[in-house]
Amino acid sequence: MKATVFIDVQNDFIDGSLGVDKNHAVADRILDYARLCKDNGVLTVATKDIHFKETYHDSLEGEKIGIEHCIEGTKGAQLYGNLEKYIDRTFVKTTFMSKDLGEFFENLAASCKLDEIEIIGFVSSVCVISNALYLRGLLPNTKISIVKEFCADVTDERTTAALDIASCNAITVYDGRCAV
Fold first, then answer.
1. Of 21-25, 119-123, 126-130, which range is least confident?
2. Which residues contact residue 45 at a Cβ distance below 8 angstroms, ignoring those fewer than 6 apart?
3. Do 99 and 82 contact (CB within 8 A), yes or no?
4. What's the CATH number for 2-49+78-174?
5. Contact (Cβ atoms closer than 8 angstroms) between residue 152 and residue 159
6. What is the value of pTM for the model shown?
7. How many CB atoms sit inside 10 A of residue 15's CB?
8. How many CB atoms lie within 10 A of CB 170?
9. C-alpha dihedral sign at 78, 82, 83, 84
10. Mean pLDDT of 77-98
C-alpha cells in the first residue's frame, strides 16, 4: 500500500500570512496530484496546522516565528481549494509535527504491508521535514519519500536545505512528479 501525506496545504501557506507567489502554482499542482492519487487508490492523509489567537504569541512558535497563521476558524486555516474531497483522513496539529500522524502510520504498518509514505506540502523547512524525520524514526524500514515539485517554502534555498537533510536520513527525494 502507498500513502500520500499532504502537509499543511492550507490557505495561509498559499495566499495568506505565510504565502508567497510561487505557492499558488505548487498548490494547484498538489490539487491535480491529489485527484490522481484518489483515482488510483492511494491512501490520502492530510495535516492541518491549527493555532489559537488567544495563545499563539505565548507559544515558542509564536515567539520565534511571530506571524499569526492558520488561526482556528479562519479561512487561512482551511485546506486549499477542494483538496478536502480527496483526503481520506485529516490530522489537526498545533505544532510542527503530528504525533497522531505517526501513531496512525505505526498502526497501519503493523496491520498491512505499507510500501511507501510519500510526503508533499508546506513549509518544507519546518513541517514537511519535521514530519518526514518523525516518520523515519518511527518506521525505519518503510520507504519514505518527498516530492520536491509538490513542496514549497518561503525561499527555494530553504526547500533545498530541508530536502538535503531528508536525503541524509534515508528519505528518497524525487525531483519531479513521481508515478502514483
1. 21-25
2. 3, 4, 5, 6, 87, 88, 89, 90, 91, 101, 104
3. no
4. 3.40.50.850
5. yes
6. 0.94
7. 16
8. 11
9. positive
10. 97
Q: Is the dihedral of CA 21, 90, 81, 118 positive or negative?
A: positive
* Of 33-37, 68-72, 140-144, minimum mean pLDDT range: 68-72
Give pLDDT tens digits for 20-50.
Answer: 888 999 999 999 999 999 999 999 999 999 9
How far is it, in rounded angstroms, from Cα 69 to Cα 50? 8
Q: What is the pLDDT of residue 59?
A: 82
DSSP letter string over the chain? -EEEEEE--BHHHHTSTT--THHHHHHHHHHHHHHHHHHTT-EEEEEEE-B-TTTGGGSHHHHHT----SBTTSGGGSBSTTGGGG-SEEEEESSSS-HHHHHHHHHHHHHS---EEEEEEE-IIIIIHHHHHHHHHH-TTSEEEEEEEEEE-SSHHHHHHHHHHHHHTT-EEESSPPP-
* Cell numbers standing for residue 76: 487561512
Residue 66's pLDDT band (cuts 50, 70, 90): confident
How far is 13 from 153, CA to CA, in rounded Å? 9
Neighbours of 36 (CB within 10 A): 15
